[in-house]
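Title: Prediction job returns without error message
Component: structure pipeline
Severity: low
Priority: P3
Assignee: unassigned

Description:
Job completed but the reporter wants confirmation the result is attached to the right record. Sequence as submitted:
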Amino acid sequence: MPLTVDNIGQSNAVNPAGSHAFQPFTADGSRIRALAIDDDEEFRNLITELLEPFGIEVHAVANPVKALEKFTREKDDFHLVLLDYYMPQLDGAKVFEWLKKLNPNVKVIIVSGGEELRLRKILAPHAIDGYIRKPFRIQEALHIIHDVLSKTGAKPVPH
């Protein structure tokens, strides 16, 4: 059953202690910092509640322009960006381009309810690091995040 706002409180929905997830720390021992950019408030709250028990420090921002302002100020402090594709003001492709211009090393995972094949075609000119389809299972999302971060200097320490 996919994890949703409705079942997040159920004891078997998320179990960080019993998961086979990673220890979310960088090679120098600091916590993994993620920027979640999504205009959906429920999703921002959900992703924060889901990832923080696994030790990932999440900064959730609704407005893509405000998110880019924050990223500009703290571009070297974020290891990961979880980016919705369909948002007002700026779509995911434009936000992605700006993120990579500001910090080519940041890992960006598209998190969207849109069809993956269609999004991959739209984003073909961009080397996205991963894709998580909404709704998602937390273990699947953590696996994708782990795989993406394993390809960077953030390198999660195996559990």
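Comment from assignee: result matches the submitted record. Strands lie at 33-37, 57-61, 80-83, 107-112, 130-133.
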